[in-house]
Amino acid sequence: MTPAIPLNDGHSMPALGLGTYPMANDEAHTAVMSAIASGYRLIDTATRYGNEPGVGQAIRDSGVPRGELFVVTKLPGADHGYDETLASFEAARNRLGTDYVDLYLIHWPLPRLYKYVDSFRAMSRLRDDGLVRSVGVSNFGAKHLRRLVEETGTVPVVNQVELHPRFNQAEMREVHRSMDIVTQAWSPLGRGDVLDDPTIVRVADRHSVTPAQVVLRWEVQLGVVPIPKSRDPHRQRLNLDVWDFVLDEDEVVELSALETGRQGGDPDVHEEF
Ligand SMILES: NC(=O)c1ccc[n+]([C@@H]2O[C@H](COP(=O)([O-])OP(=O)(O)OC[C@H]3O[C@@H](n4cnc5c(N)ncnc54)[C@H](OP(=O)(O)O)[C@@H]3O)[C@@H](O)[C@H]2O)c1
Fold this sequence. Notes:
- GO terms for molecular function: oxidoreductase activity, acting on the CH-OH group of donors, NAD or NADP as acceptor.
- By secondary structure, this protein is an alpha/beta fold.
- It has a single domain, classed as NADP-dependent oxidoreductase domain (TIM Barrel).
- The protein is built from 10 helices and 10 strands.
- The strands form 2 sheets. The chain has an 8-stranded parallel sheet. Strands 1-2 form a two-stranded antiparallel ribbon.
- The protein starts with a strand and ends in a 17-residue tail after the last helix.
């Protein structure tokens, strides 16, 4: 059973979930169905992934009551702005075919455009209207977070950022801790690229688990919520099964020492719409 992590608005979120990028609708439907059957309750999608219909259909077909699932989607850059956000969300909600979304995130801050404050105000209204349970962000840097809170008075519950052994986000984790924001990890397996690292393989052998389980367990012990993507039912099951072993402090430090730097976009300059 996946533990729950408390959020700063009184709701809670499963401590590990399934990523769905890049999956087309059919593939997302199959993957989300098998993930839910093996116990996943947090599903991460985004309007930009183009698979909200497949994810939503799987949620309805899964047989698991909607209230037991935690569905995350994200506002694309093209729809930043107050009215645009309201319209974009309504379209996303229709594609998902769900009454409400558990967590709505701003996908990237796009600081040059600087409309994320307007978008966040609209998201807070969606929350007040009961269409969104919790509001959060993704790929925000410390100054974007502070500006958001200064201007709106609302602290996002989550910041979903790139995080894996090659980029452990020590600084942002500390910022999140000080602001009571949960760190969610995208590319938590480094897109699979870190799994043959000799340190990770050695720790995995010591615990008789897979390298992916070691990496996900390391993230859990850092207080981070990983959302590994897998289309494979066997790997999905293993990725969720990280609650019965514990890395010792030295092993946590060893994994944290694999830092080389970010692989994805820099939130200060990355633009995608
Ligand atoms: N907010 C953002 O800007 C942002 C950006 C990127 C991603 N995301 C989200 O984060 C999710 C996860 O990130 P990601 O997909 O980039 O990378 P990831 O989860 O780190 O890695 C996924 C890759 O690892 C493979 N894999 C999964 N489990 C494995 C295992 N146990 N052993 C070996 N290989 C394994 C998968 O292949 P198989 O499918 O074949 O198993 C896939 O190729 C995305 O799906 C998306 O939902 C968000």
